Amino acid sequence: MTEFAISNRCKNIDASGIRKVFDLAAKRRAEGAKLIDFSIGQPDFNIPEPIKQAACLAIESDKNSYTVTQGIAELNAKVCQYYKHRFGFDPQATLITSGVSGGLVLALLAMCEQGDEVIFVDPYFVMYKHLVTLAGASSVIVDGYPEFDKLPVDKIADAITQRTKIIIINSPSNPTGCVYPADQLKQIAELAKKHNLLIISDEIYHQLCYDGDVPSVVNYAPEHTLLLDGFSKNLAMTGWRIGYAAGPKQLIEQMAKLQQYTFVCAPAPLQYAALAMDKCDISPIIEDYRNRRDLIYNGLREKFNVVKPSGGFYIFPQAPDGDAEAFCKRALEKDVLIIPGNVFSEKNTHFRISYARDIETLKEGIERLNRMV
Ligand SMILES: Cc1ncc(COP(=O)(O)O)c(C=O)c1O
Asked: Residue 96 C-alpha to ligand 1 middle, in angstroms?
């Protein structure tokens, strides 16, 4: 077979951690095991009916061509309306992206030069590190252990150098489910203003919140913040690839230029479908997920060191023997699939559970994990 000289850009991206876990899981399944799967990073409800119907209608009525790069005007208008309702002022500009992932790619490519530095907190959403590498920049990863519900503001301040361009904030967080308090977000906003940095605020889980509203850094530094959000998690549209960016006009314009020559536009009929979001009431889902959050937190807290999550559908307990990979291997022998923390972290001490599973599965999984301690 022909061997190509694959780019270092690609070679420098290491996806082996998660692959190893899924290979082991596939082996167990091949042996006939029926796994309790706590690895899945997506909600377990279906896309609400009004949105499905709107998608079918959009396809049937031939709304299938390219849209303008920025995304259809109606959806941008809706995003503006939503932003204004949430923050009390208009965004400078908006862009419909191919999910939050698409927004992250565009923002990092638009901002980063070789040697620039991007700060984010450990543990972190897996994509950040790899996309920063892809953009030619360096990740500066600030230790956020063990109090995941607090931002390590002083450590972030110490990590800022002449090369720092961006601070990425993710609240509620994947993998911890924790939400950062307003006063700490305000301090990050002050840092961004002082050093003229961009904050990328990844708020993809902010509607799935269980202990009151999730504060946003947008409130404290709108001119310095690019808000990335989308419909993958709150409306279960993970496969549809619709998200949005809202923030500084200068940056959004550059992101749109890059989108024109990469993604082109977000999927056309699904942009129209997303307009039906107003017809969806997700409050019963939030209630349901809050109950599951309570169940998993209360079920694990006696035997595991764990911070109570307030949003999303993840919890990030400490492995009892301090070696998450070993613990996850042992869990797999008990047919429980959990993800070792080193997939999302520079450390290997914790593990991630996605509790977007039905109550019976959760109960059984909790019992098996507790029995292992
Ligand atoms: C924190 C975080 N940001 C972004 C994404 C990507 O979302 P999307 O499906 O909108 O690309 C995910 C998905 O798991 C996530 O957990």
From this structure: 15
For residue range 84-125, list pLDDT tens digits in order.
999 999 999 999 999 999 999 999 999 999 999 999 999 999
**Ligand 1 pocket member 148 (CB < 6 A):** no
Where in the chain do CATH 3.90.1150.10 domains reside? 8-46+282-371
Residues 334, 368 contacting (CB under 8 angstroms): yes
Give the pair of three-digit tokens for residue 364: 């059984």
Between the CA of 104 and the centroid of ligand 1 the distance, in Å, is 9
CA contacts within 13 A on the Cβ side of 334: 18
d(CA 317, CA 320): 9
pLDDT at 287 over 90: yes
Quick one: fold of 8-46+282-371? Aspartate Aminotransferase, domain 1 (3.90.1150)
Q: Is residue 98 within 6 Å of ligand 1 at its C-beta?
A: no
Whether ligand 1 lies within 6 angstroms of the CB of 203 is answered as: no
pTM above 0.90, yes or no: yes
CA of 228 to the centre of ligand 1 (A): 10
User: What 8-state DSSP symbol labels residue 19?
Assistant: H
CA distances from 348 to 38, 81, 140, 318, 322 (A): 18, 42, 18, 9, 7
Asked if residue 34 lies in contact with residue 335, where contact means CB atoms within 8 angstroms, the answer is yes
How far, in Å, is the centroid of ligand 1 from the Cα of 204? 6
Two tokens at 274?
Answer: 């997303």
Q: Which atom of ligand 1 is nearest to the CA of 202?
A: 3
Q: Are strands 198-202 and 225-230 parallel, antiparallel or unpaired?
A: parallel
For the domain made up of 63-279, the CATH class stated in words is alpha beta
